[in-house]
């Protein structure tokens, strides 16, 4: 598969003239297990909120359904985007500093929200039918994958990025299959444990897709032939946490606010349908008022 070359010919004047290409030393776990665990937690949080909103939409009026589904797509999309860039704080290339194009970075957030929104809107309005779940899950998985590779295209470094095609295909399949399973579990099973399982399954879809996609990546550096062998002593060290941290503040705060909103309706977190009044049932106060009116007629 052709690699992505994020640097144009005029982006690095002088350094690309007479350049040589060498394999970059990639570390996807610079901070050990801290970033994968934190990334998985954020993906699970966004999935828990979004899937519960999707479930809640099935048991509400059509006028309220769009609001629940919109909140669900924003929650899952924000969780996916936040997960990606938390994981990317642990990604470094020893020989080259990394920066990010803000336009492509935030475009990835928009793509995730829109495509995931389409997927859960299909399930929310068509119900838990086989076709709706397969279609909605596939579109949701494609949204997750699109966000990842758009975010990778937004990376800026003096390097050429290439991808292993079979691993890229596998990463997309992981996202689609796991997202479909998560939607099925969310809308067909009931109870807190099933909701937790659906959230974990969606988080597996997101993080599994991410790290499979990262395993498909090869970094080929563009370097002048005169640089010394130990490039770590001459090139500035990148600090991905300082670059990415401020960008994560907005989506992370949104997820926390969404969690607070949903806590006001415990049925959302347990997946229980909203209670409907029994046919022919009237509250006691209405019965007493009716009896009083009849007495004075």
TrEMBL record:
<keyword id="KW-0812">Transmembrane</keyword>
<feature type="transmembrane region" description="Helical">
    <location>
        <begin position="132"/>
        <end position="155"/>
    </location>
</feature>
<dbReference type="GO" id="GO:0016020">
    <property type="term" value="C:membrane"/>
</dbReference>
<feature type="domain" description="MHYT">
    <location>
        <begin position="31"/>
        <end position="220"/>
    </location>
</feature>
<feature type="transmembrane region" description="Helical">
    <location>
        <begin position="29"/>
        <end position="54"/>
    </location>
</feature>
<protein>
    <submittedName>
        <fullName>Integral membrane protein</fullName>
    </submittedName>
</protein>
<feature type="transmembrane region" description="Helical">
    <location>
        <begin position="243"/>
        <end position="264"/>
    </location>
</feature>
<keyword id="KW-1133">Transmembrane helix</keyword>
<keyword id="KW-0472">Membrane</keyword>
<feature type="transmembrane region" description="Helical">
    <location>
        <begin position="66"/>
        <end position="86"/>
    </location>
</feature>
<feature type="transmembrane region" description="Helical">
    <location>
        <begin position="199"/>
        <end position="223"/>
    </location>
</feature>
<feature type="transmembrane region" description="Helical">
    <location>
        <begin position="167"/>
        <end position="187"/>
    </location>
</feature>
<feature type="transmembrane region" description="Helical">
    <location>
        <begin position="106"/>
        <end position="125"/>
    </location>
</feature>
<dbReference type="InterPro" id="IPR005330">
    <property type="entry name" value="MHYT_dom"/>
</dbReference>
<dbReference type="Pfam" id="PF03707">
    <property type="entry name" value="MHYT"/>
</dbReference>
């Amino acid at each position: 598969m052709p690699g992505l070359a994020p640097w144009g010919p005029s982006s690095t004047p002088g350094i690309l003239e007479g350049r040589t290409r060498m394999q970059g030393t990639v570390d996807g776990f610079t901070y050990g297990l801290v970033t994968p665990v934190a990334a998985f937690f954020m993906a699970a949080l966004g999935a828990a909120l979004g899937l519960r909103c999707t479930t809640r939409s099935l048991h509400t009026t059509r006028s309220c359904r769009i609001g629940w589904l919109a909140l669900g797509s924003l929650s899952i999309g924000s969780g996916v985007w936040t997960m990606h860039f938390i994981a990317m704080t642990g990604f470094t290339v020893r020989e080259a500093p990394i920066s990010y194009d803000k336009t492509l970075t935030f475009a990835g957030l928009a793509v995730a929200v829109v495509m995931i929104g389409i997927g859960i809107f299909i399930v929310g309005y068509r119900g838990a039918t086989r076709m709706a779940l397969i279609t909605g899950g596939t579109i949701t998985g494609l949204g997750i994958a699109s966000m990842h590779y758009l975010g990778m295209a937004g990376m800026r470094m003096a390097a050429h990025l290439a991808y292993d095609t079979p691993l890229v295909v596998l990463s997309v399949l992981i996202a689609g299959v796991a997202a479909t399973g998560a939607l099925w579990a969310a809308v067909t099973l009931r109870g807190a444990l099933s909701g937790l399982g659906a959230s974990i399954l969606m988080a597996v879809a997101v993080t599994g897709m991410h790290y499979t996609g990262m395993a498909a990546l090869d970094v080929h550096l563009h370097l002048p032939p005169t640089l010394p062998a130990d490039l770590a002593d001459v090139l500035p060290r990148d600090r991905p946490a300082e670059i990415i941290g401020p960008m994560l503040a907005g989506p992370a705060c949104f997820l926390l606010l969404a969690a607070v909103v949903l806590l006001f309706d415990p049925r959302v977190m347990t997946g229980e349908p909203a209670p409907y009044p029994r046919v022919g049932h009237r509250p006691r106060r209405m019965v007493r008022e009716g009896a009083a009116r009849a007495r004075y007629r």
